[in-house]
Structures are given as C-alpha cells and as structure tokens.
Amino acid sequence: MISQPSITxxxxxxxxxxxxxxxILFFPMTPVQNPRYSSAVIVNPTYIHVPPGCNVTAAxxxxxxDWVRFTHPEGAVYFVNxxxxxxxxxxxxxAAVQAHMLEVIDQFQGWLTGLKISLPVYHEVYLLPxxxxxxxxxxxxxDHGARAQFWVESVESCGLGLPPAVSLExxxxxxxxxxxxxxxxxxxxxxPVELRLDxxxxxxxxxxxxxxxDYSTFPFDAExxxxxxxxxxxxxxxxxxxxxxxxxxxxxxxxxxxRFDHFYxxxxxxxxxxxxxxxxxxxxxxxxxxxxxxxxxxxxxxxxAEFDTLPxxxxxxxxxxxxxxxxxxxxxxxxxxxxxxxxMLVSDGLLC
Length: 352
Hints:
Blueprint: H1 7-14, E1 25-28, E2 67-71, E3 77-81, E4 86-88, H2 95-115, E5 123-129, E6 136-143, E7 148-150, H3 168-185, H4 193-212, H5 222-232, H6 236-239, H7 242-261, H8 287-295, H9 299-307, H10 318-351
Parallel strand pairs: 1-6, 4-5
Antiparallel strand pairs: 2-3, 3-4, 5-6, 6-7
Helix pairs in contact: 1-2, 3-7, 4-5
C-alpha cells in the first residue's frame, strides 16, 4: 500500500476547527451498524430532458478537492477523501449535505488533534453524521496494516452490540470480521495478493476437513468451498478490482465470525462441532410431553435425540440442518405411502 499521512498530522495545516462553534459529538459505531441495508428512501421517477451527446454526468455540485465518488458493485454510491483517507456514504454531491459534512470533518480533525493520539499509517475512518443540523456523528477507524477495526476512545462492548467474549484476544476476531465488513462495503482498495492466497489456504483446508470429517466446524461444505476456491484462484491482475475486493471481504468476514464462534486461538477452541463450550440449561419435560411420547411409541424422543446432535451452544449449521430436514421429509413420504396403502387394503376389506 502507498504510505498515507495521518489525519492528525494534516489537521494543524488544513483545520478550520473553531471551539466557538456548536460542538459536534462523536460516537463510536461498528461497520455492521451501517444503515445501508435498512434505507427506506422513496423516489418518484419522471421523464427527463436528455441533452445532445452521450456524456451524461452525475447531477449535483462538484466535489471538493481530494474527494472521489465510487459506486459499490451492488450499486450504492460512497465518497472517499484520498488525502485524509475518510470514507462516507452521505451524498456529498448535495450542497447542504456537503457543507455539513465538511464542518463535521473540521471538528473531527480538531477533536483528534486535542486527543494527541498517534494513528496507524495505513488507517481509514468512516464518518456518519446524523443529519444536517444535528450535533451527532458516528465513526470508526480501520487499520489496513493490522486488518482490524478500532476507536480512539475506550468503549464498552455491550454498548456497541459486540458479542460476549472470553478474552480481549478472542474479541479481536470480531474486530477482524468488522474490518473485512468495511472492505466489503467500501471496496475501493485492492486486497493484497498474500491475503487472497491466505484465504485460499483457509478454504482448501476447510474443504479437506469437510471431506474427511462429519464434525468440521467450518460453516461451508466441501462443494461450497470448492466454488469459493474456483472464484478466487485467479491471476493478481484479474483480482485487482472492487468486485473481487467486495467478495473477498465478505468471505473473510464470515471466516472470522466462524473463528470467533469456535474460540479460535484460545485454549478452549472448539475442534469439533459437537463439542460444547457454554453452560447448558437443564431440560424439563412436562407431563403432557411425557404422555404424548408414550402414546406415539416414544417416536418424539428418538426424533429429539437426533435433532439435539445438530445445534451446539446455540449454533446450527445450515448444511447439516438441510440434511436432517431432507431425511425427515423422506421418512414422512415413506410413512405416507405406507399409510395410504394400509387404508386402501382396509377399505377393500370393508367393501368385500
């Protein structure tokens, strides 16, 4: 990656931070709290006059210096300040939004300067103002060197919706997951070749694990892993685009979520999907359930015992659930055929 200046190094020269202005409060957030998929914007398409020529440009005011407009492979528009390495998905081509965003950035620079902290060289910050006129803005940083998300203040994990963890090192799997979620949402940077090759190694091992064991903890089966490998095992030139960055980010994020769920790197790491690591609540069967099981020749108990092998510590694998449901459906179909045959025999006997 190209060396980038720190935002705190640039702030004293280009900062118009004014302590007399209404202070904007900055709150930590995580990439998974991005509202991109919960947007409920309503539009009213109309007929538009088309000028001569084919060079149709995006409507709106010009972007300030060092700002670049990107379009996500899914279609969302976002903006990047290539000097201050700031990312946002507020609409910078709207004059009022742009003016508010620039004020937010000025105050953010001043806030960071006041903190007197040293940021990683290869960092990026995401800013999400609440709206024009609001004094609130959410933020998070990502470190492209460590490939993790971070904040410039102490935070409580419960307040940010982070899952309970057994240690800070265990929780770092979530920070890595959120870093790759950021890369999935804002794929304007190329994923280094070594990280793509590392992911290929993970997928190849997972494929072999699924092929040789029924208790692999990896969430994708051997066939899915093979498809991912085929997707990513390409030349470096073919992978240097936002489309592959988005896909790699999503797969890495899922991989780190898997690692967190199974205590990867911890002394209590789950090595088989049937190993329980969390305290289990005792089960209590009601009298009604006991009676129902007896009437049905204990078939519900047999079915429950088979079902209990699927979830472990509130984790349920889709690949094994689908096998279970397919097997159950086949049993029901066989039972239905036998029942229909018996009814036909009984009805024939009564008619005779």
